[in-house]
Write a structure and sequence with these properties.
- By secondary structure, the chain is mainly alpha-helical.
- It has two domains: about 5-30 and about 155-200, Orthogonal Bundle (Endonuclease Iii, domain 2); about 35-145, Hypothetical protein, domain 2 (Endonuclease III, domain 1, Orthogonal Bundle).
- The protein is about 60% helix and about 0% strand.
């Protein structure tokens, strides 16, 4: 990601963000050197609407079904598995169907290679990824942030980010998408890094 000194040129202009960064320290967000399309999106599906610990446990069981890792998991594995088998890992029926659809759309070419996805603009990329059952804008945004390493994204619909924003700026109500987007203009071109800090603030004790 971007060097600490570089993004601080932007965040120093925001006293609240500047103070938060002093507490948290430099951003440690890391992007995979060899991103995997299938495992990244399958993980995003599994993690939807779950706490981090619960999602991690279920995803671990999901990989164990195929004796696989993120690096070795293949769409063929899931395509050949039955829905009941997938559900033994703890997946809901909806998520089991979603990972099956993901495997089908990768194997039939509906989803292009990750090298082609990297070349797409954000809106086109979201449009492409959301063809898969169970992948909405949020999952696509997380994929762009954490797998492709796009540095200037914000997910206005993410509840954690909304809570982080409210906590940082001492707001009683969560921001609307419009309010969030407008405030985030001040963080360009490093809005993804700003998001990382907003997630971190939720782990800090209340003042």
């Amino acid at each position: 990601m971007v060097p600490h000194e570089q993004y601080m040129k932007i965040f120093n202009k925001d006293p609240k963000m500047k103070d938060l960064i002093k507490i948290v320290g430099p951003c440690t967000l890391e992007v995979p050197k060899r991103p995997r399309l299938f495992s990244s999106l399958a993980r995003a599906i599994v993690y939807q609407q779950l706490s981090g610990k619960a999602a991690q446990t279920i995803y671990g069981r999901f990989l164990a079904l195929f004796e696989a890792t993120n690096a070795t998991l293949k769409p063929e594995h899931v395509q050949q598995a039955s829905l009941p088998t997938l559900r033994t890992a703890g997946l809901s029926e909806a998520k089991a169907k979603s990972v099956k659809d993901l495997s089908d759309k990768i194997l039939d070419g509906t989803l292009p290679s990750i090298s082609k996805l990297k070349k797409m603009e954000n809106e086109k990329l979201i449009e492409t990824l959301t063809q898969v059952r169970g992948i909405g804008p949020w999952s696509a945004e997380m994929f762009m942030m954490f797998t492709l390493g796009r540095e200037d994204l914000i997910s206005t619909g993410d509840l954690g980010l909304q809570k982080g924003f409210a906590k940082l700026y001492n707001k009683r109500k969560l921001p609307t998408a419009e309010q969030f987007s407008k405030a985030a203009e001040n963080w360009k071109p490093y809005r993804t890094i700003a998001c990382w800090y907003l997630w971190r603030i939720l782990d800090l004790p209340n003042n």
